[in-house]
Write a structure and sequence with these properties.
The chain is of the alpha+beta class. The chain folds into two domains: 8-199, Murine Class I Major Histocompatibility Complex, H2-DB, Chain A, domain 1, CATH 3.30.500.10; 206-299, Sandwich (Immunoglobulin-like). Helix content is 36%, strand content 34%. The strands form three sheets. Strands 4-3-2-1-5-6-7-8 form an eight-stranded antiparallel β-sheet. Strands 9, 10, 13, 14 and 15 form a five-stranded antiparallel β-sheet that branches. Strands 12-11-16-17 form a four-stranded antiparallel β-sheet. A hairpin with a 4-residue loop joins strand 7 and strand 8 (149-152). Helix 2 (77-104) packs across helix 3 (157-168). The chain is globular, with a radius of gyration of 35 Å.
Length: 349
């Protein structure tokens, strides 16, 4: 079966409409298959444009479930139907190949096979296809698109057998090559047009700095940055105005996803308590333009706050002394006047 190509007229009409999008874009196809035995395979498949989930495949009906409102209208109904038929053919061939490799190498069930495939589209409209297959979390084989040959991910009996098996399926290998080298690029160009607004979404980061002290000799400053999109971001610490270089004293986490399709990370330098230096967390992100977030932490600020509180207490105390003296004087004067009036009334009586 030959892979379908998007309508040529459709592509010509859309040509250049996504050219103002900056950067390289990737259309991902992810598959996880749990082989319980030779008869039952539990497979989940997901398609993404960059980090946006666009469609999944119903494992029972082998039909697409669209996860964004702009995905289904991007292609004709006949194209989607053809892709579904291709997936069915691929699924049968894929399960047969893996089961045969497992039986020939006496691999015990159950095990997991993961596939990561897709195409990158560069600003100059060149592209790169990729296909990687993993076994129980380890690299198994990958397809070299340039010469249409399979390569070992690791040198094991299973990987060598899978490589030779796939290499013998010439028609299947050529079909996979065409799908990801040509069809994937055509489809991605259409998706970049229809999903342009979603890809251009920007959310500004929110940053806070706080401290924790694991020991009396070490203070950890934590710069927590969250709620930003897209995920590329720069977070750095300035020590008395000089950038702190990555090392043992600076630990920055990887970028982690939030539930609302934004991201977060933490950058934590270790400092000496009471060293008298100033520390600033600097955050740069596309949504901020040429500006940066600067969140300061420094012992000088702590001392200033403590000094202000102590000064305020002293000022209150100093103001209270004359007020208390005046209140005592007036109270004494009132008592004297009261006694004087009582004495006069007594004499008159």
């Amino acid at each position: 079966m030959q892979p379908p190509h998007c309508c040529l007229l459709h592509l010509l009409l859309l040509s250049g409409t996504w050219a103002d999008l900056e950067g390289t874009f990737t259309l991902w196809l992810l598959q996880t298959s749990i082989f319980e035995n030779t008869y039952f395979v539990n497979t989940e498949r997901l398609g993404l444009l960059e980090d946006i989930e666009i469609a999944s495949l119903n494992k029972y009906t082998q039909t697409f479930h669209f996860l964004q409102p702009w995905v289904q209208p991007a292609l004709r109904r006949s194209d989607w139907h053809t892709y579904e038929e291709m997936v069915k053919v691929y699924s049968v061939q894929f399960s047969h190949t893996i089961n045969e490799a497992a039986m020939q190498n006496r691999v015990s069930y159950s095990f997991i096979i993961q596939c990561r495939a897709g195409c990158e589209l560069f600003p100059n409209r060149t592209s790169r296809a990729f296909i990687h297959v993993g076994y129980n979390g380890q690299d198994l084989v990958s397809l070299n698109i340039e010469n249409c040959s399979w390569q070992l991910g690791q040198d094991t009996n299973v990987s060598r057998y899978v490589k030779s098996l796939l290499q013998s399926y010439t028609a299947f290998t050529e079909l996979v090559d065409v799908i990801f080298s040509e069809t994937c690029v055509d489809v991605q160009e259409v998706f970049l047009h229809y999903g342009k607004k979603a890809l251009e979404r920007q959310e500004q980061p929110e940053a806070t700095v706080f401290a924790c002290m694991p020991s009396s000799a070490q203070l950890l400053l934590v710069c927590r940055v969250t709620g930003f999109y897209p995920h590329p971001i720069s977070v750095a610490w300035l020590w008395d105005g000089q950038e702190v270089l990555p090392g043992l004293a600076l630990n920055t986490s990887s970028i982690l996803p939030n539930a609302n399709l934004t991201y977060q990370l933490r950058s934590i330098p270790a400092v000496v308590p009471g060293d008298g230096h100033s520390y600033i967390c600097r955050v740069c992100h596309r949504s901020l333009g040429s500006r940066s977030l600067l969140i300061q932490w420094g012992n000088s600020e702590v001392v200033l706050v403590v000094g202000l509180e102590a000064g305020l207490l002293a000022a209150v105390a100093m103001a209270a002394i004359p007020a208390l003296w005046l209140w005592t004087f007036r109270k004494h004067q009132q008592m004297q006047e009261s006694e004087s009036r009582s004495s006069i009334l007594s004499k008159e009586t």
